[in-house]
Design brief:
The structure holds two protein chains of two kinds. By secondary structure, chain A is mostly helical. Chain A has ten helices and no strands. Chain A is elongated. Classes of the chains: A mainly alpha, B mainly alpha.
Chain lengths: 202, 118
C-alpha cells in the first residue's frame, strides 16, 4: 500500500499537532501520523548523522534505522517532547556501533589539499579550504564532533544540544570548546591563507 | 614569501573565534537526499504494524518459565522438611575419629615468654 507523505496541504492542523499527539497516534499504528513525524524530523536527524559519518553513504540507512526503532517500539521514548534528541542519539549510537573499530571513517570525495610540493605562488582554492575544514571536523573525537554539529551546524542552543546529548550545559560547553580548540590547532599553519582565499573569491 | 614564511606568519597570529566561524561556514553541507522520506515510509509499510508490547510478544505467561523451577525447589524443601529428611553435603564418616581432637591450633603454638619478645 503506497503511503502519502504528510505535509503541504494541511499545514495549519499539522503544525498544531505536537510530537506527543503524533507519537500517541503512531503508537496505535497510525502510519499517517508517523509520516508527519518523519516529515518533521527526518532531515535534521539525517544531517547530523551525515556529519557524524563524514558523508558516508550509510547515513540514510542509519537514519531510517532510528525511525524504524521508534515505529516498532514507541513506548521506549519516555518524553515525547524529547523526540528529536532521542532520534539523534539513537542514530548516532547506531553510527558508532557500525563504524566501531574503524580509526576514521573515510571522507567521501575528499580532495587532497597539499601535495607537499613547495610552491611560492601556491594558492588555496575555496574547494581546498572546504576539504581542509571537512578533514579537520572529521578528525575530531565523536562527542566533540557531535557537539560542534549540533551547535555550529544545526544552530541549536547550548541548552538544546546538551539535552540531546544528555549532558549538563557546562559539559556541553566544555566539549564544544575542546572541539574548536582542536580545529584551531589543526589549522594553525594555514588558517590565514585559507581566510585569504575565501576573501579573494568573495 | 616562501611557504615556510607563510607558515611562520600563520603560527605567530592566533586564530580568533570569528575566524574559525568563518572557516567553519565553508564546511560541506549534507545533500538533501531526494525521496528519502518516501523511502522511509515504504520501509515502515513493509515492516507493517508495530509489534505489540514486549509482554504480549513473549506471552502473558512467560513468567512461569522462571517461576516453575523456583516453586519446585520450594516444594522439595517443604517435603523434605516435613519428612524429617535433610541433604547432607558433608558425610558423617568424614569426621569419624576426629571428635576428640583440637582443631583450634592453639595446642600447636610454641610457648613464648613475654621476655623473649623484647
Amino acid at each position: 500500500m503506497a503511503l502519502k507523505l504528510a505535509g503541504g496541504t494541511d499545514s495549519q492542523s499539522d503544525a498544531s499537532m505536537t510530537d506527543a499527539s503524533l507519537l500517541a497516534a503512531a503508537a496505535r499504528q497510525d502510519q499517517s501520523a508517523f509520516s508527519r513525524l518523519v516529515s518533521r524530523h527526518y532531515q535534521t536527524v539525517y544531517r547530523v548523522v551525515w556529519r557524524m559519518v563524514n558523508g558516508h553513504t550509510d547515513a540514510e540507512d542509519l537514519t531510517q534505522e532510528a525511525f524504524l526503532r521508534l515505529w516498532q517500539n514507541p513506548q521506549q521514548l519516555r518524553e515525547a517532547g524529547a523526540l528529536r534528541g532521542w532520534l539523534i542519539r539513537v542514530a548516532t549510537n547506531l553510527a558508532t556501533d557500525r563504524f566501531r573499530g574503524a580509526k576514521t571513517i573515510a571522507l567521501d570525495n575528499a580532495d587532497d589539499v597539499n601535495d607537499g610540493k613547495p610552491d611560492a605562488e601556491q594558492t588555496i582554492q575555496r574547494t581546498e579550504v572546504r576539504s581542509r575544514i571537512d578533514q579537520a571536523i572529521a578528525s575530531l573525537p565523536e562527542r566533540q564532533r557531535l557537539a560542534l554539529t549540533l551547535v555550529q551546524f544545526e544552530q541549536m542552543s547550548n541548552t538544546e544540544a546538551a539535552a540531546v546529548m544528555e549532558l549538563t550545559v557546562d559539559a556541553l560547553e566544555s566539549l564544544l570548546a575542546r572541539a574548536r580548540r582542536n580545529i584551531k590547532q589543526q589549522l594553525s599553519g594555514e588558517w590565514k591563507d585559507m581566510l585569504a582565499a575565501l576573501t579573494e573569491e568573495s | 614569501m616562501t611557504e615556510r614564511d607563510m607558515t611562520e606568519r600563520n603560527n605567530r597570529e592566533v586564530m580568533s573565534d570569528d575566524d574559525l566561524d568563518q572557516l567553519l561556514q565553508t564546511a560541506s553541507e549534507p545533500p538533501r537526499p531526494l525521496g528519502a522520506e518516501q523511502r522511509m515510509m515504504k520501509r515502515i509499510a513493509a515492516v507493517g504494524n508495530a509489534p505489540a508490547s514486549r509482554l504480549e510478544r513473549t506471552g502473558r505467561f512467560a513468567w512461569l518459565a522462571g517461576g516453575f523451577p523456583l516453586a519446585a525447589s520450594l516444594a522439595l524443601g517443604l517435603y523434605l522438611g516435613a519428612q524429617g529428611l535433610s541433604i547432607d553435603t558433608i558425610g558423617q564418616t568424614d569426621l569419624a575419629g576426629y571428635d576428640d581432637q583440637d582443631f583450634s591450633g592453639i595446642g600447636d603454638a610454641e610457648t613464648v615468654a613475654e621476655e623473649d619478645l623484647i
